[in-house]
Amino acid sequence: MSNGEKLATDVYIPAFGLIPNSSYIPRKYLNENGFAMVDEYLRVKGLKNVWAIGDVADIEPPQYKVTDTQSAHLAKNIILLLADKALIPYKVVARMCTRRFQLPFDMS
Ligand SMILES: Cc1cc2nc3c(=O)[nH]c(=O)nc-3n(C[C@H](O)[C@H](O)[C@H](O)COP(=O)(O)OP(=O)(O)OC[C@H]3O[C@@H](n4cnc5c(N)ncnc54)[C@H](O)[C@@H]3O)c2cc1C
């Protein structure tokens, strides 16, 4: 558990988007676990004006709050982009499993 407590269980079924729905994205833009690889501006690496946020992006865990923060940040950056101004890097709040796909619990 997040407080260090251990909870023994026979079965645990995570049901919150551990596998991204990204089959429509060309493979070269995905990491080995199928998440879209983004840079510090949430822009898909290798593309100029394509962005990925939320569950499909490889930058933070798949959670609503994270998606909300990313979407607000991206909206601001698109306004800056349209005004031909410098973009603001996104600050990762909740670094976790999606880049390396480590589960947030002990399966041993
Ligand atoms: C059971 C469950 C419980 C959860 N509980 C929590 C929680 O307690 N707290 C929390 O923070 N997060 C929770 N989450 C995670 C949270 O729901 C997600 O992180 C959040 O919805 C991600 O938003 P998103 O916009 O990235 O993706 P989504 O909300 O999945 O939106 C993606 C949209 O794209 C559409 N789409 C997919 N493919 C295509 C396509 N090819 N063409 C057009 N449209 C397409 C989908 O239909 C969908 O409407 C939970 C998720 C699940 C499944």
Topology, pairings included?
Blueprint: H1 64-82
The chain binds flavin-adenine dinucleotide (FAD).
Flavin-adenine dinucleotide binds at residues 15-17, 21, 24, 54-55, 62-65, 67.
Characterization of this structure:
With 108 residues, this protein is mostly helical. The chain has one domain. It has one helix at 64-82. The longest helix has 19 residues, at 64-82. It is globular and about 55 Å long. The relative contact order is 0.17. The model is unreliable at 98-102 (pLDDT under 50). The protein binds flavin-adenine dinucleotide. Flavin-adenine dinucleotide (FAD) is lined by residues 15-17, 21, 24, 54-55, 62-65, 67. The site of flavin-adenine dinucleotide has 12 residues, from helix 1.
* Helix-strand topology string: H
Query: Which residue ranges are poorly predicted, with pLDDT under 50 across at least 5 consecutive positions?
Result: 98-102
Sheet having the most strands? none
Distance between the termini: 14 Å
Query: How much strand content do the residues show?
Result: under 5%
Shape: globular
SS class: mainly alpha
The average pLDDT score comes to 86
Identify the bound ligands: flavin-adenine dinucleotide
Number of helical stretches of at least 4 residues: 1
The Rg value, from CA coordinates, equals 16 Å
- Helical amount: 10-25%
Summarize the structure.
The chain is mainly α and 108 residues long. The protein has one helix and no strands.
Characteristics:
binds flavin-adenine dinucleotide; 1 helix; mainly alpha; 108 residues; 18% helix; globular; single chain
